[in-house]
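Single Protein Entry

Contents — chain, fold
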Amino acid sequence: MDTLQLYRQALVLARHGNYARAAEALGIAQPNLTRAIASLERSLGVRLFDRGRSGAVTTAFGRVFVERAEQLLRSDAELRRELQLLADLATGTLRIACGPYAAEAVVADAVARLVAAHPKVRIECLVMTPEHVVTEVLSGHVDIGVSTDATLQPQPELEIERFAPLRVHLACRPEHPLTQERQLTLARALQYPLVTTRLRGADALQVMPGFEAATAPRGVLPELVPPILVNSLAMGRQIARGSDALFSGFAAQLADDVRAGRLVLLDVDDALLRNSHAVYHRRDRPLAPAAALFRTLLRELEQELQLADAPPRRGRLRRA
């Protein structure tokens, strides 16, 4: 018989102090338990239990054995748990839901880093509206969600981590009429159409002309529909490159287009041009190893975005 199994049986006997009750708790016949304890005592060379009318009482050797065996079994359980966690990280599945901006800003890079370190982890990553991200997390269809903080209402069922705000830049094609204007304001810039996703939350109530208010049920966050509505940011950038539409994004998201001269960043800043991400999961479902590592990678990337928040120099709009 397995040594640890013998130890477990001896601990159950010590707890119950009676062979019949211990055998019942273990789900085995009493003679089998008696033989098992006798075999353990022979292998140890000492008597662990005194047998009498009152039942089985631990000897001095037995009391030392109980203390050490409990420690050993706890260590065995911890070891097995750690090995299982490593196995899950090596071969498990991570299901992520994220908003469009979060997908480009941090989620794709976090997934890339995770897969580079653990190539056998299966990843399911879905891009959807922030409201649907929350729904998917609450329903348990995904393990973890990442979306804009502005749309995230307090949810007692969710464990939420919010990241620091990042500046959102307005970008346009280099030949855009706004590139010739001085002291540009957000109100003036938004006289040109903005191509982006739907805007939600308190900030949506303050956005300038060109947007249409979408009807929302009572208790749902206010929503504004931009003049050019997309759910693909790659499509939004392409539209801005070929028209007078403006595109909004973080400096890191716009860096390639700016360096290549396809877009320039307008010299306009406003309190509304701020956005932050949040990562969340259900409180009653502790994160699996892959999900916990993914969240750690998100933190690292958010810090990197903060450091890279200044817009790239090359291709940036310069004024005379």
Q: What stands out?
A: The CA atoms of residues 264 and 279 lie 30 Å apart. The longest strand covers residues 93-98. Residues 216-220, 311-320 have pLDDT under 50 and may be disordered. Residues 60-91 form the longest helix (32 residues).
